[in-house]
Amino acid sequence: MTALEQPGILTPSQAREVFRTGEVPATTSGWCRGHVQANLLAVPRDLAFDALLFALRNPGPCPLLEVTDPGDPHVREIATADLRTDLPAYRVYERGRLVAEVADATEYWRDDLVALLIGCSFTFETALATAGVPLRHVEQGRNVPMYVTSRRCRPAGRLAGPLVVSMRPVPAGLVATATEVTAGHPLAHGAPVHAGDPAELGIASLDRPDFGEAVEFADGDVPMFWACGVTPQAVVMASEVPFVITHSPGRMLITDRSDENLAQ
Amino acid sequence: MTALEQPGILTPSQAREVFRTGEVPATTSGWCRGHVQANLLAVPRDLAFDALLFALRNPGPCPLLEVTDPGDPHVREIATADLRTDLPAYRVYERGRLVAEVADATEYWRDDLVALLIGCSFTFETALATAGVPLRHVEQGRNVPMYVTSRRCRPAGRLAGPLVVSMRPVPAGLVATATEVTAGHPLAHGAPVHAGDPAELGIASLDRPDFGEAVEFADGDVPMFWACGVTPQAVVMASEVPFVITHSPGRMLITDRSDENLAQ
Fold first, then answer.
1. How far apart are CA A25 and CA B184, in angstroms?
2. pLDDT tens for each residue of chain B, 264 residues long
């Protein structure tokens, strides 16, 4: 078995090297266990204040891990990485529409972009597994399902739109455990926003996620929903923002930070 | 004894009314005990991204409590207050120089200003007092002394400059207690940055604070230093920023939030 067949044991720099050379996995969930993963939102300089303000006003979906200087495509704190190449895949939005999904963002990158790196719920999955909570999407080899909800984020400037959540089926007897474990990771979205009836969040059907893939429930599983770092992508679409680059949902920047350093 | 002679028992809205009608106390330390106080930094829209990024990169001196929409002189979350009138006093800086200190900022306010409200160490003074830590500046009826240090903040865009600290003399046997108590208030600057020799922070003499007033030490007191929300004012001066309005050091916005809600 090669290291790539066991992505959980790769180091973050090995994983980024794999992505830099063009490998595009279905998801980075389960990769480099014990390390923080991050969502990407890169916006033109003239939208950067609105984006920062939006993140500050919506710390549930948008906990900020690092923000780059305008024009600098590198992160330097959470990892030493080139944001144009070191994620598995990217989405490019123009006027709110998805215009490209690519493994390398170099040709789309602009020298006025500011990148926001936002916490990801994959970060707390190691802690969930350690606490005995099964991860159905990992068991099934799928990307986590994500849903646009009927909840509105707090707007900021030109940015307004819905909350997006990730969903994990959790055995009913472990809902309290999963809540407690994830509450300890506020920079990875923290405690769930809801457990139970998806209709409460305006989700019509769990079988048709807006991002990622549907997962199978085991008998007795309850759907649990966490605020998701794909929220800015739904907001970008709703707000018809002229131009942004994001990660491809479920395919994150893997950072050098250990989970423990972000837990509280 | 009137309520004004016992400012600790005023409600925050009563205190703001007092300030709105022109009263300017030496300090708001000790006012409205149990309520969060906040520093003000109001910057033109074109500096707002740099200011937000500076705060995010320097959460010790600049924990963000609320950020207003451009042009809106009101806070709506931490209090319902008019930032132009509801603080005791203001400073106006042009090209890094202090050009006015006024009790009412209305005539200086601009419609492109964005206001950052930043946590204040006065917030944790109730907790210190409850833990038996004496507050020398309160006992002596003085504004807390603040010092520009030799430590540099992390820069952001056009903003770069030194860390400012507030200093409180603490009996040696209570230094550990004071550290522990304040560490629980990260949105009020949290644990001290230093205790002991002021020279470690590049402070030549405790008798000559850069802001506020010198305080007397009791026998056995050790100087303890906390990151201070006046830091942006020192940074504004060092960076020669064209225009900002701040609170007058030690004369804060008193919010409606209780201390407990900000403690962690």
1. 41
2. 455 678 888 999 999 999 999 889 999 999 999 999 999 999 999 999 999 999 999 999 999 999 999 999 999 999 999 999 999 999 999 999 999 999 999 999 999 999 999 999 999 999 999 999 999 999 999 999 999 999 999 999 999 999 999 999 999 999 999 999 999 999 999 999 999 999 999 999 999 999 999 999 999 999 999 999 999 999 999 999 999 999 999 999 999 999 866 555
Q: Are residues A42 and A101 located together in one domain of the fold?
A: yes
Question: Which tokens in the block code for residue B126?
Answer: 């109730």
Which pLDDT belongs to residue B205? Answer: 97
Regarding whether B183 and B140 lie in a shared domain, the answer is yes
Q: Cα(A234)–Cα(B139) distance, rounded to whole angstroms?
A: 54
Average pLDDT of the residues in A137-166? 96
CB contact under 8 A, A48 and B45: no
Which residues in chain A (194-253) have CB-CB distances under 8 A to chain B? none
Q: Does A77 touch chain B (CB under 8 A)?
A: no
Same domain, B77 and B53: yes
pLDDT tens digit string along A193-206? 999 999 999 999 99
Give SS3 for A108: coil
Closest among A152, A143, A135 to A60, alpha carbons compared:
A152
Same domain? B144 vs B61: no
Q: Are residue A20 and residue A107 in the same domain, yes or no?
A: yes
Domain that holds residue B64: 3-119+239-262
Q: Around Cβ A143, how many Cβ atoms within 10 Å? A: 23
Q: Which residues of B touch A52 (CB under 8 A)?
A: 49, 52-53, 56
**CATH code assigned at A31:** 3.40.1640.10
Q: Are residues B110 and B139 in the same domain?
A: no
What single DSSP character describes residue B102? E
Residue of chain B minimizing CA distance to A70: B157
Interface check A53 vs B, CB under 8 A: yes
Stretch 20-39 of chain B: residues touching chain A, C-beta under 8 Å? none
Judged by CB atoms closer than 8 Å, whether chains meet at B56 and A69 is answered as: no
- Give the pair of three-digit tokens for residue B47: 């500096």
Q: Are residues A212 and A222 in the same domain?
A: yes
CATH of the domain at A214: 3.30.2040.10
The chain B residue lying nearest A156, using CA atoms, is B69
Asked if B112 and B197 sit in the same domain, the reply is no
Is the CB of A157 inside 8 Å of chain B's CB atoms?
A: yes
Q: Which of B205, B124, B53, B158 is nearest to A55 (CA)?
A: B53
Which structure tokens are listed for A224? 């649990």
**Beta strands A146-152 and A162-171: pairing type?**
antiparallel
B102 strand-pairing partners: B90
